[in-house]
Amino acid sequence: MNLEVREENYIENLNWRYATKKFDATKNLKETELEKLIESVRLSASSYGLQPYEVIVIENPEIKEKLKAAAWNQPQLTDASHIFVFANFKKIDASHIDDYLNNIAETRNLSREDLKGMEDMLKNTVLNFTEEEQQIWASKQTYIALGNLLAAAAEFKIDTCPMEGFNSAQFDEILNLEEKNLSASVVATVGYRSDKDPMQHLEKVRKSKQELFHIL
């Protein structure tokens, strides 16, 4: 497949995707499909590459029912094959940065001394944020990962619905996130659209390029 065809397919797939409101509860992701989505999220960009969040992937029906009740009984939570809960760190300390730098050193065959400048920069920046600033910053990073998930799922012809309509405190309690220094930031339900979902037949509504982009 040449580059031009791949580019056309990518745009077509983005046009194909929509926020699925009604999933087919009888269709579940294959393990290979789930792994591709997980890897797509893992490869997401983040500020400094620090990835100040974790992702909880739920397939257990009982947990999905509890989360549905904490999301005003929206059916996507139980009808979708899986739920991706993006949870940001509530507090970032030196250990998170040390773990990251150790990973860099091991992956790139470097010494920690080689990374001293990066260590000083990260600790003088991130550790000087207030706790509230850390949470806001970390939460923003989860949305970058969410975007990667949505685009990757569209490429694989898997349906998604990004969701902010949930009680974060209740999600934290159900998933025991508080004790893990995490808080639910944003959610995506993942699976396959129902034939009965009328949303799939609607034209996609977006701003025109002239409205949205300003090239200077």
UniProtKB/TrEMBL annotation:
Superkingdom per UniProt: Bacteria
UniProt keywords, alphabetically: Flavoprotein, FMN, NADP, Oxidoreductase
Signal peptide boundaries: none
Entry protein name: NAD(P)H-dependent oxidoreductase
GO molecular function: oxidoreductase activity
InterPro entries: NfsB-like (IPR033878), Nitroreductase (IPR029479), Nitroreductase-like (IPR000415)
Pfam families per the UniProt record, alphabetical: Nitroreductase (PF00881)
Residues covered by the Nitroreductase domain: 15-192
PANTHER family noted in UniProt: NAD(P)H NITROREDUCTASE YDGI-RELATED, NITROREDUCTASE
